[in-house]
Amino acid sequence: MCLGIPGxxxxxxxxxNDLALVNVGGVRRVIxxxxxxDEGRPASACIGEWxxxxxxxxxxxxxxxxxxxxxxLLHELGVAQGEMDDMADMDELRDELRSAP
Length: 101
Hints:
Blueprint: E1 5-14, E2 19-24, E3 27-32, E4 50-54, E5 57-62, H1 64-77, H2 79-99
Antiparallel strand pairs: 1-2, 1-4, 2-3, 4-5
């Protein structure tokens, strides 16, 4: 099943490569924001915005109310926690691989 989860962009980490830090339910990770920026809306303008995150990409922008409704529904279904746990596990695995000799 494909699932997009609302997250809030908190920092642009690499504007040249369209990368930003997003907060998804308390889990922070770097995602690609190329799909939600353009000449009229640069990466720096996205800080604080809510986006729909799927497999490391911001797929579209959401307003805060829509993000809240979507998160509430996902929590109600119990899906969001599993997805966030998977993201945290992926981050831990990445960190372990980086620190391996």
